[in-house]
Specification:
- This protein has a single domain, classed as Roll (Thiol Ester Dehydrase, Chain A), CATH 3.10.129.10.
- It has 3 helices and 7 strands, in the order βαβαβββββα.
- The strands form 2 sheets. The chain has a 5-stranded antiparallel sheet. The chain has a two-stranded parallel sheet with strand order 1-7.
- It starts with 10 loop residues before the first strand and ends in an 8-residue tail after the last helix.
Length: about 170
């Protein structure tokens, strides 16, 4: 059955904005005192999911997390600030961008540590994809992010089509 695709009212980027704060505990770190990448990715997924839910006011599921770039290590005891928002909407999906900042609790110094992009699909009450509301691009920065998101989506779809054509997406049997 095809998803129901009724037009929802447009929402601003600001409506989707999220800021999360976490503390880097020793159990989140490796033997060098740096946070595990998987822990950061978990927080990125949560931050992006909240942004997507705020935008479409429905259940969302993660379609992909890509373009994760670890810029600088985050140390034990530091404060992690995650900032996310919806960058662009498509048919039944949307791309969210998340930037991750590390804050020294002693000096207050902030540095960008990670950036990532995640794609979410909105679901209706039956668990089927549903159309997401359009995104109102209110600034030049919003338009720049939306254009970049469109380019990333085109690249993802091209890779998906190429791997489907070659069978590369199928794993060999165990």
């Amino acid at each position: 059955m095809e998803p129901e695709l009724t037009q929802a009212p447009a929402h601003s980027v600001r409506r989707s904005q999220v800021e999360m704060t976490e503390h880097v505990l020793p159990e989140y770190t490796n033997s060098l005192g740096n946070i595990f990448g998987g822990q950061i990715m978990c927080w990125i997924d949560i931050c992006a999911a909240i942004a997507a839910q705020r935008h479409c006011r429905s259940v969302v599921v993660t379609r992909s997390i890509d373009a994760v770039e670890f810029i600088k290590p985050i140390k034990t005891g530091h404060i992690v600030v995650l900032r996310g928002q919806v960058n662009a909407t498509f048919h039944t999906s949307m791309e969210c961008g998340v930037s991750v900042w590390s804050e020294s609790p002693l000096t207050g110094e902030l540095h960008k540590a990670v950036k990532a992009y995640a794609t979410f699909v909105a679901l209706d009450e039956h668990g089927r994809p549903k159309k997401v509301p359009p995104l109102v691009l209110g600034s030049d920065e919003d338009r720049r992010r939306a254009d970049a998101a469109g380019a990333r989506r085109a690249a993802r779809l091209a890779v998906r089509a190429a791997s489907h054509d070659t069978g590369a997406s199928r794993l060999p049997p165990p």
